[in-house]
Amino acid sequence: MTPDLTDSEIDMICDGLVQNHARIVYLQRMGLTVRRKPNGKPLVNRAHYDAVMNGTIHARPAAARGPVWSVAA
Predict the structure, then answer these.
(1) Contacting residues for 27 by C-beta, under 8 A, at least 6 apart
(2) What is the pTM of this model?
(3) 20 and 42 in contact (C-beta within 8 Å)?
């Protein structure tokens, strides 16, 4: 077993997503820490993935990206 998820495992998790950036965003929204391989594909540590999926550590979804429409007081 490898220390990181394989490309085929990430393909199964991100079923339907084709672009690497879309996969990375999806995985980050699941609360995972995602690094990028030199070829642009997502890289996820297996132990971190297992801990998040088993509820051992609390997953923190990535902050929403986009415009901020509110005005700070």
Answers:
(1) 10, 13, 14, 34, 42, 44
(2) 0.77
(3) yes
